[in-house]
Amino acid sequence: MKKLLLTALIAVSLTSFAFAAPVKKVNSFVTNSFNNDFKNVGSVAWDVSSSYAKATFVLDNIRTEAFYTLDGEFIGTTHAIAIEDLPVAAKRSFAKKYAGYTVKEAIKFDGEDGTAYFISAENEKESVILKASKSGLSVYNVN
Predict the structure, then answer these.
(1) Residue 73 and residue 43 share a domain
(2) 3-state SS string over 64-129?
(3) Domain of 59?
(4) Final residue in a domain of this structure, among 32, 61, 77
(5) Which of 28, 79, 91, 115 is the most exposed place for a label (fewest CB within 10 A)?
(6) Count of alpha carbons within 13 Å of 107, Cβ hemisphere only?
Protein backbone atom coordinates (compact mmCIF):
# COMPACT_ATOMS: atom_id res chain seq x y z
CA MET A 1 0.00 0.00 0.00
CA LYS A 2 2.83 2.38 0.88
CA LYS A 3 4.53 1.80 -2.49
CA LEU A 4 1.23 2.45 -4.28
CA LEU A 5 0.81 5.71 -2.40
CA LEU A 6 4.42 6.70 -3.15
CA THR A 7 3.82 5.94 -6.83
CA ALA A 8 0.76 8.17 -6.84
CA LEU A 9 2.62 10.96 -5.09
CA ILE A 10 5.53 10.90 -7.48
CA ALA A 11 3.20 10.87 -10.47
CA VAL A 12 1.33 13.85 -9.02
CA SER A 13 4.58 15.69 -8.37
CA LEU A 14 5.68 15.17 -11.95
CA THR A 15 2.31 15.99 -13.45
CA SER A 16 -0.48 18.37 -12.55
CA PHE A 17 -3.21 18.00 -9.99
CA ALA A 18 -5.79 18.96 -12.63
CA PHE A 19 -7.07 15.48 -13.45
CA ALA A 20 -8.74 14.92 -10.08
CA ALA A 21 -11.12 17.38 -8.54
CA PRO A 22 -9.39 18.11 -5.23
CA VAL A 23 -11.28 18.50 -2.00
CA LYS A 24 -10.63 21.95 -0.56
CA LYS A 25 -10.97 21.17 3.19
CA VAL A 26 -7.83 20.16 5.09
CA ASN A 27 -8.52 18.39 8.37
CA SER A 28 -6.92 19.34 11.68
CA PHE A 29 -4.82 16.15 11.85
CA VAL A 30 -3.01 17.20 8.69
CA THR A 31 -2.64 20.89 9.54
CA ASN A 32 -1.39 20.12 13.07
CA SER A 33 1.22 17.71 11.71
CA PHE A 34 2.29 20.20 9.06
CA ASN A 35 2.57 23.04 11.57
CA ASN A 36 4.73 20.85 13.83
CA ASP A 37 6.98 19.78 10.92
CA PHE A 38 7.31 23.19 9.24
CA LYS A 39 7.17 25.93 11.84
CA ASN A 40 8.47 28.92 9.89
CA VAL A 41 6.72 28.80 6.53
CA GLY A 42 3.90 30.96 5.26
CA SER A 43 1.64 31.06 2.24
CA VAL A 44 0.76 27.38 2.21
CA ALA A 45 -1.52 26.15 -0.59
CA TRP A 46 -3.35 22.88 0.07
CA ASP A 47 -4.67 20.24 -2.31
CA VAL A 48 -6.52 17.27 -0.85
CA SER A 49 -7.36 14.09 -2.73
CA SER A 50 -9.30 11.09 -1.49
CA SER A 51 -6.11 9.50 -0.10
CA TYR A 52 -3.61 12.24 0.82
CA ALA A 53 -3.06 15.96 1.34
CA LYS A 54 -0.37 18.04 -0.35
CA ALA A 55 0.95 21.34 1.00
CA THR A 56 2.85 23.58 -1.40
CA PHE A 57 5.04 26.28 0.11
CA VAL A 58 8.46 27.92 -0.10
CA LEU A 59 11.19 26.61 2.22
CA ASP A 60 14.68 28.14 2.07
CA ASN A 61 13.76 29.83 -1.24
CA ILE A 62 12.78 26.47 -2.79
CA ARG A 63 9.22 25.60 -3.84
CA THR A 64 8.48 22.48 -1.80
CA GLU A 65 5.59 20.04 -1.57
CA ALA A 66 4.89 18.08 1.62
CA PHE A 67 2.61 15.04 1.53
CA TYR A 68 0.53 13.66 4.40
CA THR A 69 -1.96 10.86 4.82
CA LEU A 70 -5.44 12.07 5.73
CA ASP A 71 -4.70 10.96 9.30
CA GLY A 72 -1.83 13.48 9.44
CA GLU A 73 1.04 11.01 8.98
CA PHE A 74 4.00 12.59 7.18
CA ILE A 75 4.85 10.82 3.91
CA GLY A 76 7.59 12.99 2.49
CA THR A 77 8.59 16.13 0.63
CA THR A 78 9.47 16.80 -2.98
CA HIS A 79 11.13 19.65 -4.78
CA ALA A 80 12.47 20.19 -8.27
CA ILE A 81 16.19 19.83 -8.86
CA ALA A 82 18.52 20.36 -11.78
CA ILE A 83 19.57 17.25 -13.71
CA GLU A 84 23.13 18.06 -12.61
CA ASP A 85 22.11 17.41 -8.99
CA LEU A 86 21.29 13.74 -9.64
CA PRO A 87 23.69 11.00 -8.53
CA VAL A 88 26.59 10.66 -11.00
CA ALA A 89 25.70 7.05 -11.96
CA ALA A 90 22.13 8.12 -12.73
CA LYS A 91 23.29 10.99 -14.97
CA ARG A 92 25.62 8.68 -16.88
CA SER A 93 22.96 6.01 -17.26
CA PHE A 94 20.41 8.58 -18.49
CA ALA A 95 22.85 10.01 -21.04
CA LYS A 96 23.63 6.52 -22.34
CA LYS A 97 20.19 4.85 -22.34
CA TYR A 98 17.95 7.88 -22.99
CA ALA A 99 20.06 10.02 -25.33
CA GLY A 100 17.05 10.91 -27.52
CA TYR A 101 14.89 12.03 -24.59
CA THR A 102 14.32 15.53 -23.26
CA VAL A 103 14.14 15.96 -19.50
CA LYS A 104 10.89 17.62 -18.50
CA GLU A 105 11.53 17.61 -14.76
CA ALA A 106 13.72 16.07 -12.08
CA ILE A 107 12.62 15.89 -8.45
CA LYS A 108 14.08 14.87 -5.14
CA PHE A 109 11.81 12.95 -2.76
CA ASP A 110 12.73 12.83 0.93
CA GLY A 111 10.63 10.41 2.97
CA GLU A 112 10.88 8.13 5.94
CA ASP A 113 12.65 5.50 3.82
CA GLY A 114 15.32 7.95 2.68
CA THR A 115 15.93 9.99 -0.44
CA ALA A 116 14.89 9.07 -3.97
CA TYR A 117 15.26 10.94 -7.26
CA PHE A 118 12.88 10.86 -10.20
CA ILE A 119 13.22 12.08 -13.80
CA SER A 120 10.34 12.79 -16.14
CA ALA A 121 11.53 12.64 -19.76
CA GLU A 122 10.01 12.27 -23.19
CA ASN A 123 10.77 11.74 -26.84
CA GLU A 124 8.51 11.76 -29.90
CA LYS A 125 7.08 8.32 -29.05
CA GLU A 126 6.72 8.11 -25.27
CA SER A 127 7.07 9.68 -21.85
CA VAL A 128 8.91 7.93 -19.04
CA ILE A 129 9.35 8.43 -15.33
CA LEU A 130 12.65 7.05 -14.13
CA LYS A 131 13.79 6.42 -10.58
CA ALA A 132 17.42 7.41 -10.11
CA SER A 133 19.71 5.95 -7.49
CA LYS A 134 23.44 5.72 -6.82
CA SER A 135 23.51 2.52 -8.88
CA GLY A 136 21.77 3.98 -11.95
CA LEU A 137 18.24 4.25 -13.34
CA SER A 138 15.14 2.09 -13.28
CA VAL A 139 11.92 2.64 -15.20
CA TYR A 140 9.19 3.77 -12.84
CA ASN A 141 6.43 4.41 -15.38
CA VAL A 142 6.04 4.53 -19.19
CA ASN A 143 3.25 6.32 -21.10
Answers:
(1) yes
(2) EEEEEECCCCEEEEEEEECHHHCCHHHHHHHHHHCCCCEEEEEEEEEECCEEEEEEEEECCCCEEE
(3) 1-77
(4) 77
(5) 28
(6) 25
pLDDT tens-place string over residues 75-134: 999 999 998 998 888 888 899 999 999 999 999 999 988 899 999 999 999 999 999 876
91 shares a domain with 66: no
In a shared domain, residues 14 and 65: yes
Question: What is the spatial distance between Cα 36 and Cα 29, in angstroms, rounded to a whole number?
Answer: 11
Could you tell me the CATH number of the domain that includes residue 61? 3.10.450.360
Same domain, 4 and 72: yes
Specify the DSSP class assigned to residue 7: H
Q: Model-level pTM?
A: 0.78
Strands ordered across the beta sheet of 102-111: 45-48, 52-59, 62-69, 74-81, 102-111, 114-122, 127-133, 136-142
